[in-house]
Amino acid sequence: MNTFQATRLVAAREIKVKVRDKTFLYSTLIFLLLAVVATVVPAMLSSGPSTVAATAAGAEPLRAAGLDVLLVADDGAAEQAVRDGDADAAVVAGPVVVADERAPDDVVAALSAAPQVKLLDPDAVDPLVAYLVPFAFAFVFFFMSQTFGLQIAQSVTEEKQTRIVEILVAAVPARALLAGKILAAGALALGQITLIAAVALIGMRLTDGGDLLGLIAPAIGWFVPFFLCGFLLLAAMWAAAGALVNRQEDIAGASTPVQLAVMAPFFAVVFLNDNATAMRILSYLPISAPTAMPVRLFTGDAATWEPFVSLALLLLAAAGFLLAGARVYEGSLLRTNGRTSVRAAWRQREPIG
Amino acid sequence: MTSVLRLDGVDRSFGGRQVLKDVSFDVTAGRMTGFVGGNGAGKTTTMRIILGVLAPDAGQVTWRGHRLTREDRARFGYMPEERGLYPKMTPREQVVHLGRLYGLDAAGARRRTGALLERVGLGERADDLLETLSLGNQQRAQIAAALVHDPEVLILDEPFSGLDPLAVDMVVAVLRERAAAGAPVLFSSHQLDVVERLCDDLVLIAGGTIRAAGAREELRAAYTLPRFSLVVDGDAGWLRDQPGVRLVDLDGARAVFEVDPPADDQAVLRAALERGPVRAFGPVTPSLAEIFREVNQ
Does residue A34 carry a pLDDT above 70? Predict the structure, then answer.
């Protein structure tokens, strides 16, 4: 049994137990529902083209504009159709648009001559999208590293609490346990994101919202490596926090620094996303790079070389955190007398690897 | 080549407090070795060191003459004192999982698990979540977990605690099978009567040092005093005046006494017979509990 095989077995067990955990299943279902609701429902609520009542003489330009035309005998009947609610508006001689309270924009536009438009910066992102997408990235990373990080900590503590860890470390290297857990949590997190993203994309396709995909695709391409490295860094911290305590109830206390490391970058990106200097700094700090750099890429503020440098820094930091986390993990795994301090765990060097 | 697990001069401290001091003893193949000591005497630490879960500060553990390696330990079966398995898995799943971690292939692990769970009497509950089982049944699963990879050495910390008498008998039978198959079996227990009934060899530890170690009968002989018990009809008080006899305990017709050489226990018996019927007479062998008390003083 080498470390690699052991890691795979440990990861397989973690995934097996998790995917039959009802809380996990329900939360995944709820996310899928939310994805469907967010993409399909707005399309269902928008009413489509207006129905407009007009005489045969005035119908042609309206038809050409793609409106539903309700043919009526004369202008009086057209107005009556609006009163009766059979049509959203009527076009009578003039042309005059008749409507109840507000003239539908598409009807007015069909009868107007639009001026020519020349865009100086045609790639500029819709301000609403520009605000929502960074928020979505930040939220996905925040939420996933919180949920699945906590899962790692709980799994570590469970093994300590039940003392099965003594049998485990006698059988396989402690590093294989740690690696297996992080691998499983990472795979589950990616799987969940992929599933939700797939449902959201299909929803957009079905409802003609597909243009967003082309827009955010390059940023998503960068989001994945940043997500993975950032997740690794935090996972090491979560595992160490879980190993320091003996009971599930104590995880919250021991993981306060980790929670801070998850939450602070999230709020920083949400609140500072239009401050270019702050975002530049955030996109290089390893702890906030996974959220800040994809955002800067999305808004087109980052030069081509910047994500490479930032990712390299993040990778180095993640490797460092992983080594430190593994040392704390190994040093505290078998200390079952109350909570272990990081210092004591760091000093302890049992050859259980 | 004798299959002996040997501890040699093992020291261990925790934060300046010495828990084990020059601990040396053998666990011999095919024999059940009872490991006896009070709370905090160092039993669990010793077992963890054997399993490589803790490192000794000094000294070493050898198996078949060479220093223990991780590969050796993968063929050890271990049952920790405070035990538990995964609450959200069934006994079958976790025993298979542990079997695979010990290096069995999937089919082999499943086959061994099925047979073992039957053997420990858990066949019907093998597919219920562990957390829904009684403590006794969880304990049975734990035994199966320690045996799944057909270990060459068994290290069991308090294997009988929490078991009802039937389960104790089952575990005893399973352990005897292992010993008979040639595995050294080291087990600790507070239940001295069980140890006395079960073990071939004994290791007594107190305050982190080994106070006595060896075959049970030899130990018993070593701790046996020239002490006899006598039951007569009527009162045994006359023993008080017998030359060379020191009364240890007198309760009407029953007496326990020691004989100082050159006086002879048979002479005392003859004297008793002259006075009337003797209902019982014999040497007093110390119980394990008495030896234990003795070495702890």
Answer: yes
